[in-house]
Amino acid sequence: MKKFVSILLVIIMCLSYHFILVVHASTLDAKSDSAVMQEGKSTQARTDKPDNEAGAGAKDEADNKDDAASKDDAASGVSMSEVSLCIDNKNVYEGMQQAYTNGYQPVCANGNVTLVLPLISDGKLQQDKITASVDLGATDSSPFVFRSYEKEFNCKPEYINGTGETKDIFLVSFELTLSEKRVNGIYPVIINVTGKDENGIEVQKSFTNFVTVADGIDPNAAASGVADTTQAEETPTSAPVVLVDKSVINTDTVKAGEDFEVTVTLKNTSRQKSVQNLVATVNVPSADIELKNDSNTIFIGKIGTQKTTELTLKFHASKSTADGNYPIEIAMSYDDPKASTFSSTGSFVVTVEQPLDVKLTMPNIDKNVTAGDTIPLTFQVMNLGRSTVYNVRCDVTGDGLSQTKTAFIGNMESGTAGEGETNLFITTLEGKSQYGDTTGTVTLTYEDGFGNEQTQEFSFNTTINKMPDEASTGDEKKEKSASQWWISLAVIGGLIVLAGAVSGAYYMGRKKR
Question: What gap in Å lies between CA 344 and CA 332, rounded to an integer?
Answer without folding.
Answer: 5
